[in-house]
Amino acid sequence: MSAPSEPAPGTKRELRPKDRGTDRGTDRSWPRFGIAARIAVIVVGALVAVQVLMLVAYITERRSAAPLGPFVPMLQRVAALAQLLGEVSPSQRDLALRATTASGFAPVYGVERPQVETPAYLGFAAARIRQLMGGPPDRFVALALIGGEAAGLGRVERLRDLRGARLRVVVALDGGGYLDVLAGGDLTVRLLGLPVGLIAGILGFLVALVALFAVRRETRPLSDLAAVVERFGARLEPLEVPERGAPDVRLVIRAVNAMQARIAELVRMRTLVLGAISHDLRTYLTRLRLRLELLPPGPQVEKAQADLAGMQALVDDALAFARATFAPASGERVDLSALARDEYEAHLAEGGAVSLSDADGPLLVDGTRGALARVLANLVGNALAYGQCAEITLLDLGDQVELRVDDRGPGIPPAERASVFEPFYRVEPSRSRESGGAGLGLTIVRQIVEGHGGEVVIADRPGGGARLRVLLPKTGVGAQSASAASTPAATAKRD
């Protein structure tokens, strides 16, 4: 199975897009949260915490001010006023009533007894007023809940009538007459008909919403930058991000744009040099092969021809690797089922131990036919070289097509699965032609598949052996993904 040799000490291993998932676990406290989402959570959490603290402080203050609750002080106030009116002269009665009148507490003196009946759930309040006033135990005391204007100022009989309801208290005075009090309790200060606290909370959330839009506007350049870097890491196609946002963000975007251009140019030059050398080597190899054919047959000639065949395979792989580096998908519709059948029939005609299943119907993907045929050839060739057989399976996963190639060889250890995609690395340390190629097969597979918007996964085959899964987006899905990858920069340019 193709794979790279261990990197030299002190060298840095290139982080590929599919390897980044292992590094994302370093920030486990904020899984899958972007910077805008994190700021939003912080702002909303702070607002909620402030509201909760204010509520706790209010409840604590009210409890410390009135340990028995707001209802008992109001009853004490009614009892005290009734006692005062029973002791003062009629000329001072109006003065006492005016002095005690307040918002939510409207006392009135009357000669005739109002028709008020005390419901059972307010019986304890009537008994409490009698106890506070003293005197005869059969003193007339009546309490009733009176609905608001919406309920017609009548007696509260339904839960919905409690909105705006007030408490009416009638107490018989010692000097004759009755005290009639209409109390609304501790009324909440209101603005435009709504409690001020509620308005403050609504305004707070509106301010937070505006702040979130502002934060999103400031963090959008970072989101665009992340999308472009992700796309560049997968395809090595520079895409300039417009410089906007805060000065430090603009500086980062400018540096990333320059870095993309430098990396792309370095890779392009490396690929051109590799392709040129490989192309020229093929010319010399062809000359050597012709000269060997002119020599008399013998063991040394056969060994030289075997070496030339190995060199030719290496050159072919190097050329394929150079082409795959800068060979984006052409966008044509390719039927993987037809490619798999062609590969199956070709190896079957050569006597290879191959099998094909679930390839009856067309499975279309967007890509380049020749590149995808190379993927199939490399995977099947590796399976036959290392596992003595190749079991090809195609599966329709809805928005993806899975190409699966199983073998019955020794498999690939989990510790080696990330390394086998590196150039010139091989799990088998031997470099002989019989034990495998030069170590570019899976590297080429991965480059081609990622260039088509897919991924390659290595797993264990049930029963022993290796299983290589190629997942490619179906026709239409890959185009949408590519469009989404380029959307941030395009959106930024429109802004």
The helix content, as a percent range, equals: 40-55%
Query: Overall mean pLDDT score?
Result: 74
Radius of gyration: 42 Å
Could you name the ranges where pLDDT drops below 50 across 5 or more consecutive residues?
1-29, 185-192, 479-495
Distance between the termini: 50 Å
Order of helices and strands, N to C? Answer: HHHEHEEEEEHHHEHEEHEEHEEH
Q: What percent of residues are in strands?
A: 5-15%
- State the total count of DSSP E strands: 13
Shape: rod-shaped
Give the number of helices.
11
Summary, kept brief:
Helices cover 50% and strands 14% of the residues. It is an alpha+beta fold and 495 residues long. It has a 5-stranded mixed sheet.
Describe the structure.
This protein is an alpha+beta fold and 495 residues long. It has a domain of 115 residues. The chain has 11 helices and 13 strands. The strands form 4 sheets. Strands 8-10-11-13-12 form a 5-stranded mixed β-sheet. α6 runs antiparallel to α7. The chain is rod-shaped, with a radius of gyration of 42 Å. The two termini are 50 Å apart. The N terminus and C terminus are likely disordered.
